[in-house]
Amino acid sequence: MKIIGLIIAVLTGALLIYGTVDFPGWADPASPASTHLSPHFIEKTMEETSVPNIVTAVLADYRSYDTMFETTVIFSGGVVCFILLRIFRRKEPEDRLYRHVLTGATIRVKEGGKIPPDSDDFERIDTLWTPHDLIIKTVCRLLIPFIQLFGLYVIAHGHHSPGGGFQGGVILGASIMLLAISQDLRTAVQRMREKVDALLSPTGVFIYAGTGALCLLLGLNFMDYSALASVLYVDPVTARSHGILIVEIGVGVAVMATIIWIYNNLSSAGKYDEGL
Amino acid sequence: MSEQYPALLVVVPLLSALVICVAGWVNKRLCFPIAVAALGVAAYSCIGLLLRVLDEGVIVYKLGGWDPPMGIAYYVDHLNGLVLSVVSVVALLNLIASKKSIDQEFPDKIGPFYTLYVLMVTGLLGIVVTGDAFNLYVLLEIAALTGYGLLAMGEDRAPLAALNYLYMGTIGACFYLLGVGYLYIVTGSLNMVDIAKILPSLYQSKAVLGAFIILMVGVWLKMAFFPLHAWLPNAYTYAPSAASSLIAPLVTKVMIYVMIRFILTVFTPEFAFNILAVSDSIVWLAVIAIVMGAILALAERNLKKMLTYIVIAEVGYMVGGAWLGNRAGMTGAILHIVNDALMTLCVFLVAGNIVYKLKGYAFDDLKGLYRKMPFTMTAFTVGVLSMIGVPPTCGFFSKWYLILGAIRAEHWFFMGALLFSSLVNAVLFFRIIEIAFFEPFTDHHAHGHDHQPEPIDEAPLSMVVPLWIVAAALVIVGIYTSDIVTKIIQFAIPEGIL
Amino acid sequence: MQMLVAKYNYWIYITLMMIGLYAMIAKNNLVKKIVGMSIFQTAIILFYVSIGAKRGATIPIIEHGHGEGHGAGTHMVHAVDYINPLPHVLMLTAIVVAVATLGVALALAIRVYNRYNTLEEDEILAQIREK
User: Which CATH architecture has domain C2-58+82-130?
Assistant: First the structure.
C-alpha cells in the first residue's frame, strides 16, 4: 500500500506541477483571475450593495447562494454527527459519583442510595478522576464573556472589517467549548441544552434561506435582497446591505449552534457525560 | 410562479429539511408527511421545468438577480430537465416505499434521518441544476456528507465502509475542486458557460489539460468508475435499505451527468473528443469496468452485494457510451441515466422489501420467495428483464443505442463487453429466480408441514405499490423511448456530435 | 528560469497536497488518514488563496467607505489597488466544508473504534476475516 500510495502521489503531483507551467506568475496583476471578474466586484460593490468589505459583499450577496449551502453543509455535518453518535437509551451506571465542590471530596452513591440534593454544593461527575482546577475555572469564567462580546462584534461588523457570520459564530461556539473544556461537558450542556443546539442550528439556516425565500415571495428572484426594500422602507441598494446583515446573523446562529453540537457529540461519543 | 421553478425545486426541500429537523423533536409522526410534501413539490417543479424547457428552450435563472458571470445562475436545458425529473421522481417514490423500513430500522432517530434524506435530495437536485462550477462543489459535498451519514446508519460494518467512502469521496471532491481552481487560474471565471466561451483560445494550454484530467479523475472517483470503485460495494451493501435504494440509483447517475455536462458544455466535445486523443483509452477502461463488474458480480452469493457490482458495470456502460464520441453513444448514455436510475431503484426496492420481511439477503434466504412474496418478486422479474435488456422494457433501448454507438465508432470490444454483461446479468438473475421460484422455503418452525404450500407473507402495501409503479415505469419508459429520444435527448446533444 | 521561480508558491502547495494524499492512501491508522485528509484540504485552501494575490494591492476592504452616500461619484475605486476577493470567498466556503467533513470523519472513526476497539486498519480487517 505504501508503494502504491507513493506512486499515486508522485504521479498526481507531477501532473499538477506540469499544469502550472502555463499559469500566470504569482501575484501577477495581469492574470486572468485578477482581470476577468474581480475588477467588477472591486469597483462596483460599493455602488451596488454599499458594503465596503468586498469579501462580505461577494460572499453574502453576489454568491449568496453558495454561502447558503455552505451553512447547510455545516448543518448537515451536525446532523450526521448527531445521528451517528448520540445514544439515547443508555442505562444509568450503577454507581453515581458526586463531588463536594468546596472540599473537592468525591463521594460514590451505590445503586438505590440517597442522591445528594440538587444544590450548588454537589456536582455530578462521571469518572473518579475528573480534573478541576480553581485557577483555570476562574480565568475561563472571566474570559468567556469577553470572547462572546468579541464574537458578537465580529458578526455585527462584518460589513466594515474582516469578519462576518462564520467567524463570529465560530468564536461564540468556541466560548461554550472553552466552558466545556475548563469545567466539564455537563456544565456546558446545562448552560446550552442539547435541544437548544438542535433548534438553533436549523433556525440559523432557516433565517438565511427564509430571507431568500422572502425575496422570492416579494416578486423578485431568490436571494435578490433588493426586494426587501419595500419591507424595510429603504432604497434597494441599502436593502442589499441590510439583507447581508440578516443572513450573516443567520449564519452566525447556525455556525455557533452546530459547532457546539458537533463538539458535544464528538467529545463524549454521544453520551453527553463529562466528555474528553 | 412557473418562472420560479428553478429556485423552488432546491429551496422547498432545503427549507423543509430544516422544518423536519425541528419537527423531529416535537412529534416524530410529522416528519414523513413534510418530507413527502417537500419532495412532491420538488418533483412537480422539476417536471414543470422540463415541460417549459421543451416549449421555450434553455431557461436561465439568475440567483440574487445578478447577471451570470458575477452571480450564480442556473441554466436549465433538455439534459438537466430530464435528469432533474428522474432524480426527483426516484427520490419521492423511494421515500414513500421506505417509510416502513425506516420506522423499523431506526425508531428513535426518524427526525434526523428524514432531514438527511431530504438534504441529500436537495444536494443532488442542486448539482444537476446549477450552472456554476464552484457551486457544484458545495452541493457535491452536501450530497456526499449526508450520504456518509445515511450509509453509516446500517448494520455492523457500515461505519467502516462509510469511512472508506468518506476518504475516497473527499479525495474525489478535492480533485474536482483542484480542477476548478486550475480552470479559474487560466480563465478567471467560475460560470460554466463563461468558461466555455474563454476556453477555445486556451485549448493548447497545459493548465487546461491538467484541469481536465484531475477533474475527470475526481468525478470518476465519485461515480466508482472501474479502478476507482473499491469503496462502493461495501458502502452500499451494509447500508440501511432506505439509504441504499436512494443512493445506489442516484449518486452514480448524477456524477455521470456531471461528467457529460463537463464534456458537452464546459470543455466542449471538440476539445474532449478531437483535441485530446484520450477517448479511445477511456472506452477501453469502460470495457474493463463492464467485464470486471460482471465477473465480480458472478462471484457473489449475496443479493445486495451482487447488485452493487452490477451498478459498477452499469457505470462502465454510461462512461463508455459518453466517450464513444458519437451521437448514438451519447444518446445511449443519457437514456441509460434515466433507465438505470429506474432499474436500480426497482431492484434495490425489492432488496429492501426482502430485508424488511426476512432480515437477510444472502441467496440462501431467498428460497421459495415467489410463493411467499409474489408481488415483490413479480416486480423483481420486470426489473431483471430490464437489466438484462429484454425488448419491451427500457433497458433494451438504451443498450441498443449504446451498441449502435459502438458499431458507428467501430469499437467492437465495447460492443462485446455490453453483450457479455447482458449475458452475465441473465445468468445471475436466472440463478436467483431459480432459487426463489423452485427451491422450497425452509422455515425452521414448519418441520411438520413440509407439504403444505407456503402462506403468502407479502411486504406492506406502502412498499409494494411504489415498487409496482417503478416496475410499470420500466415498461412505459421502454415503450415511449422514441419520444424521449426525439423530443428531449436529441436537443440535449450539441450539433457538433454526429 | 524566471518564469519557473515565479510559481514556487504553487509547487509548495502541491507538495503539501501530495503529503496529505500519500497519508490518506498509505497510512494504516484511520485517524492518521483523517489527518492526511485535513492536510490535503488545507493545502487546496492555500492554493486558492494564493490565486487571489496581486502585487502592490491591499486587502479587499474599501477605505473610507462607510456606507453613507453610495453614489458612484463619492470616490473612485481602482481594481489594481485591491486584491482579488473571489478566492477568499470560495475558500471561506471550502473551510466550512472541510470542518464539516472532519467532524463526520471523526464521528465515523468513533463508531468504528466502539465496534472493533482499534483504529489500525489491518487489525480491523483481521477481525472481519476471523468471523
Answer: Orthogonal Bundle (1.10)
